[in-house]
Amino acid sequence: MLMLAWRNVWRNRRRSLITIASMGAGLAAIMFGQSMLKSLQHQLVEKATGSIAGHIQIQRRGIKDLKFPDVYIEKLEPAERALAGHPMIKAWAKRIAMTGLVSSPEGSVGVLINAIDVPNELKITNISQYLTHGEFLGTQARGIVMGDRLAQRLALRLGEKAVLMAQAEDGSMGAEAFRLVGLYHSGSNTFDGQMVYIQLAAMQELLGVGHKVNHFVARIDDPTMVDGVQQELTAAIDRSEPLQVVSWKQVDFEIVGIQRFQNALLDVVLFVVFAIVALGILNTLLMSFFERIREFGVLMAIGAKPRWVMKLVLAESLILGSIGTVLGLVAGSAMISWYGARGLHLPVGEAFSYFLPFPSVIYLRYSWSTHWLAAVVVLLTSVIAAISPSLRACRLRPAEALRHV
Questions:
Q1: Residue 84 and residue 278 in contact, taking contact as beta carbons nearer than 8 Å
Q2: Do the Cβ atoms of 196 and 110 come closer than 8 Å?
Q3: Contact at 8 Å (CB) between 170 and 114?
Q4: pLDDT tens by residue, 98-129
């Protein structure tokens, strides 16, 4: 049967090649779209977690806005023990993040102040990689680092002083002069124009909060395990402590929403491509069916059972689908490898630049869990599309089929 089905497939070589090419092109396009979308999502998460959010944060329980933990953690030891004792934690650091005001002789601008533990922070976030002038705090106790856009608004140059003001724990305004020691350019309007970085100890002194911080941030070895690490850290902290462990998915929930929208859009595109593939296979098999009605009649007349004829048509469809699937996997893999090495230039950097630093080049990655699923669905679609012609073939009456012109 398989040998006969193989010969039947190539009886009309041009039609079969067109069908196989359409299936291969469809699967290759699906793989390319899957890879582009998954690579974009991966880079988006990497930039969000690598720029400021981290993978895991520990904050005070009951905070309304997880992006701005405005309540201090008084007892640091429970969180420190949990983070230091977890094998998946690659690095962790203490922070104070709060809104404030930075002033120069030219004016004042509202900013987000990030008071960081520099040596540990550099293992978690990569904002220091965007440094263009000076140094990233280093040993400067009263140093401040800001984006070039903010420095331009304040007319500040390296070595000049700016006054930083923030609300202390008792409600009073704390103010201190800091010397500009570094400038960075990330390409993000928010980062370059509204964020400053100072030493954690200097911020604690400015606010008069002692050793208190308002959150911990951590980076883990495998970001895909973030949910499990979150649960384990939560279990490691005594429930009597007023602390909560949150992941980047809760802090940057907008990214999760973007991912869900993109995945839904991809599902719609995949459905359309699968429908096109199914219609192409159905058209090919129906044309072959009408051309071979007398042939089916002869087969039945010499003893072929209707079920055997049905299996023959399905086998032909399976052969077409298998060749098309292999062709699609090869072509799709080649495109992903090409753009994985050279990058795909897309204007996504401009779309995300307001919120966070993001490049305009996407380096494609394989997503075999979705690629194999697409390949299997394409193959099944080719077989399902053959059910109607195969049923019509097995229901033919030999006497009528032999008279067909």
A1: no
A2: no
A3: no
A4: 889 999 888 889 999 999 998 899 899 888 88
Which pLDDT tens digit goes with each residue over 214-233? 999 999 988 888 999 999 99
Give yes or no for residue 245 having a pLDDT over 90. Answer: yes
C-alpha atoms less than 13 angstroms from C-alpha of 33 in its C-beta half-sphere: 19
**Sequence-ordered list of residues with C-beta below 8 angstroms from that of 401, at least 6 positions apart, any chain:** 293, 294, 296, 297, 300
Q: Please give the Cα distance from 183 to 336 (Å, whole number).
A: 37
AA letter at 314: L
Strand partners, 220: 89
What is the full DSSP assignment across 10-59?
TTTHHHHHHHHHHHHHHHHHHHHHHHHHHHHHHHHHHHHIIIII-SEEEE
Amino acid letter for position 293: I
H/E stretch holding 325 = helix 306-342
| 155 CB neighbour count, 10 Å cutoff | 11
Tell me the DSSP string of 151-205: HHHHT--TT-EEEEEEE-TTSPEEEEEEEEEEEE--S-HHHHHHEEEEEHHHHHH
Residues in CB range of 144: below 8 A, 6 or more apart = 102, 162, 164, 178, 179, 180, 181, 196, 197, 198
pLDDT over 90 at 12, yes or no? no
In this structure, what are the phi and psi dihedrals at residue 73, rounded to the nearest 5 degrees?
-95, 120
**CA-wise closest residue to 344 among 365, 363, 359, 367:** 363
Q: Please, what is the Cα angle at 385 between 380 and 390, to 5 degrees?
A: 115
Identity of residue 225? M
The strand pairing partners of 195, in sequence order, are 112
